[in-house]
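Hi there,

I know you've been waiting on this one. I reran it after we fixed the sequence typo, so this is the corrected version. Both the input and the resulting structure follow.
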Amino acid sequence: MNDSSRGASSTAGYWGPTDPGAVPAGPAYDEHPAQQTRPMPIVPDGPADSGDQDDDRGAARPGGPLFRDETPQEPMAAPPPPPPKKRAGRDLRAAIGVGVGLGAVVAASLFIVKAVFIGVIAIAVVIGLWELTSRLDEKKGIKAPLVPLAVGGAAMVVAGYARGAEGAWVAMALTALAVLIWRMTEPPEGYLRDVTAGVFAAFYVPFLATFVAMMLTAHDGPWRVLMFLVLTVVSDTGAYAVGWRFGTHKLAPRISPGKTWEGLAGAVVFAMVAGALCMEFMIDNGVWWQGLLLGLAVAASATLGDLGESMIKRDLGIKDMGTLLPGHGGIMDRLDSLLPTAPVVWLLLVLFVGSG
């Protein structure tokens, strides 16, 4: 049976009945009047002409051939979409603009009047404390007292500049005591939790910041502070650039999924090169190999500081500590790598070239 016989009766193809005397001459009729047939051309094997195709396969259309009952073809699968292009997670234009503006303010205050730069540090510390205590209250209900923290934090920075490490430690102790006393004016529920958070905030933000003020007391203090800022920024930039372009192996996926081992390698290389150049040309009596060690230490401390704040933000369930700096987040999102790096740079500079 060929394709042309499908759907036709056994008597199809005759103009007269099988019994010539049964019906008068004329068109052939079947037993059922509705099933009128007429001769159909044989459809050759192969695809049907698209112009004669009917919606019902195997049915005849007047004036057209009988179509084969073909199995419907599966629709062609759509090509897979191209892989998404890597994009930066923040507004780079805003981030660069804010970074340049902050750098100009820091440089101007650093090399014109040292006291102005101490004021810049104190303001940054107070804003950072406000951001941290606000997020603790919003997300965890922890009410670390802001007033004694802000006053004690600013005093801590000034004491570190005026009296060195001894002044910073005394101011830290007095700030912790003020936090304990201030919290006593409220109900005792949650007292231990709140004062613990307050003492932690006092150490984390203002106390670590006092090491920047202590760097400034040296005769080449502005250059030491500038080198500290440059190395930290270069380390962060190297980690970001190399990690964004080549990063595939996660460094700490549970803490900060965006950080990679390749990014850490970029931070180390960039910071070590910058450290060698800075020690050779910016610091009195500095030697290039000391800069290599300094750059390595900065890359490690900056990465740990970034991971530390990421851990805090993970615990709080937030992306940024604030929204004050477009493209960056809050002040604390910029201080995260600077704060733990400050004591490291201060100590290594004292060991390499002295504190004077």
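Quick highlight: The two ends are 107 Å apart (CA to CA).

Best,
R. S.
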